[in-house]
Amino acid sequence: MTVQDVLDLIRDKGIKMVDFRIVDVPGRQHHVTVPATHVDEETLRRGLPFDGSSIQGFRGIEESDMVMRPDLDTAFVDPFTKVPTLNLMCDVYEPSGIRYDRDPRFIAQKAEAYLERTGVADRAYFGPELEFFVFDDVRFDTGQNGAFYAVDSEEGIWNSGKSGEANLGYKIRNKSGYFPVAPSDTQQDLRSEIVLALEEAGLPVERHHHEVATAGQAEINFRFDTLTKTADHVLLYKYIVRNVARKYGKVATFMPKPLFGDNGSGMHVHQSLFRGEVPLFYQEGAYASLSETALQYIAGILYHAPAILAFSNASTNSYKRLVPGFEAPVNLVFSQGNRSAAIRVPVAGVTPKAARIEFRTPDSTSNPYLAFAAMLMAGLDGIQKRMDPKALGYGPLDKNIYELSPAEKEGIRSVPGSYSEALAALEADHEFLLAGDVFSEDFIHNWIELKKTSEVEQVAIRPHPYEFYLYFDL
């Protein structure tokens, strides 16, 4: 969109407020709102000043002046505000006018530019599948002398014996929530309303359904796009999901493992490369119709997976999902149509343009700009170094890996067992991210320290409720 297109949209839609948004380093959005009467051509071109020291992972107070400039192609009318409001995603700049190196959106854009410079391809497509829970109630607290959390859902199997009000049954059993119809599935209308809001905001949706877990686990799939645009769409998706759930008096969470004893929520990421209109991942008659380029890309992701997970599974809670027994993709191998492998190659209805790989390990605690950029850089490293996934021991392995014996599993690498391990892997293996100045040493060091000090160490030093069960009487 041009500046005039946005000004026309403000006039035609009767917009009263314009919301300017940025994303911080961990992946949360922040916004400032300006009356539409004060938004003119200069505002849309030059942007707005803001305090970078108040944004997590950005600047200290001694150098806090920064500027956000809107990407006009991201404009959409907010469906949740009473006052007509236009939302715009922004890029972050230094006061001097140069891009800010720690802006996650800039890193995603640099990854796309680097892809073109390599000559390998000119477009990378990403199609994430975000899973989430919609609960009826959530409570949590932590203090000096106590800590707890509790979530509830009318669908939760733990409510099958609930009394005090009419209990109409049809609770969803653990691991039995895939595709049930009403009345077991209580959230059909909620998900449909999310779909309508997404499409109204310009994001095409392919399907929605209840997911495997009890208690309102859901998935809504939107159409793939290029790297930065898809990361923009992930933030838009999460914003709309959360606010439609709130409208229904419920709460949505993308936390990977909010429930013990049932499947967690992932963000499976489909990926492919194109040069012009030519798909680069397809080869007729080959294993899973994969080209040599696709195999090398797979090898790059699996080789660098422990480091990638520092961005793609960016929470201590992520590694409570990545445990055997809950369809968790913990095995660093690839396979066609096999959901027990970290990389699945979809084979149903494959055409040259639909040929792709699916990295199943990531989850939605990631900052999508950083996670997608890290995946692309790893894949490109595999292509440039002509890595062979077979020679490296990454498969293909066309078996249910969960049912292999310990002897059969020997030699299969697994994902890190904790976020501390993933951050250590990133510290040891990040040269591939520095290519083309996509990531910087400063950014990676800042990320590791931020995550260690504000998350990993804070979780580690607090007593856990289960520790009382294990140790209180010793």
UniProtKB/TrEMBL annotation:
| Protein known as | Glutamine synthetase
Return the InterPro entries for the record. Answer: Gln_synt_N (IPR008147), Gln_synt_N_sf (IPR036651), Gln_synth/guanido_kin_cat_dom (IPR014746), Gln_synth_cat_dom (IPR008146), Gln_synth_gly_rich_site (IPR027303), Gln_synth_I (IPR004809), Gln_synth_N_conserv_site (IPR027302)
* Family under the similarity heading: Belongs to the glutamine synthetase family.
Give the main location.
cytoplasm
Instruction: Mark the transmembrane ranges.
Output: none
Is Ligase a UniProt keyword of this protein? yes
Query: Which EC numbers characterise this protein's activity in its record?
Result: 6.3.1.2
Q: Which domain of life is it from?
A: Bacteria
**SUBUNIT field:** Oligomer of 12 subunits arranged in the form of two hexagons.
Q: Where is the GS beta-grasp domain?
A: 13-97
Cofactor(s) essential for the protein:
Mg(2+)
Q: According to its UniProt record, which reaction does this protein catalyse?
A: L-glutamate + NH4(+) + ATP = L-glutamine + ADP + phosphate + H(+)
**Any idea which UniProt keywords this protein has?**
ATP-binding, Cytoplasm, Ligase, Magnesium, Metal-binding, Nucleotide-binding, Phosphoprotein
Provide the positions where the record notes the PTM O-AMP-tyrosine: Y402
What EC class does the entry list? ligase
